[in-house]
Amino acid sequence: MDAQKELSEFLSMPMAEIYGVVTFYSRFSLKPKGKYNISVCLGTACFVKGSQKIMDRLLDRLKIQVRRNNA
Fold it and tell me: Where are the domains of the chain?
């Protein structure tokens, strides 16, 4: 929130407008993320090529859980 406030002041824009942009784009987040971000495509074309197997292997080997891309 501090970064948004500083950006709002620097750009002379309302906080609501900054917040709207931050929550609209999936690459921005209001919560801290880990040091490394892993993304696996699970769209139809990727799934047909075996992306679910890759995802399952990553989850097993790294002992991690899926985190949905929500703000």
Answer: 1-30, 35-71
Other C-beta atoms lying within 10 Å of the C-beta of residue 15:
13
Compute the distance between CA of residue 20 and CA of residue 57 in angstroms, rounded to an integer.
Answer: 36
Answer whether 0.70 is exceeded by the pTM.
no
User: How far does Cα 6 stand from its chain's mean position?
Assistant: 22
Q: How far apart are CA 39 and CA 43, in angstroms?
A: 12
Judge whether residue 37 has pLDDT over 60. yes
3-state secondary structure 22-56: HHHCCCCCCCCCCCCCCCCCCCHHHHHCCHHHHHH
Residue 69's pLDDT band, with cuts at 50, 70 and 90, is: low
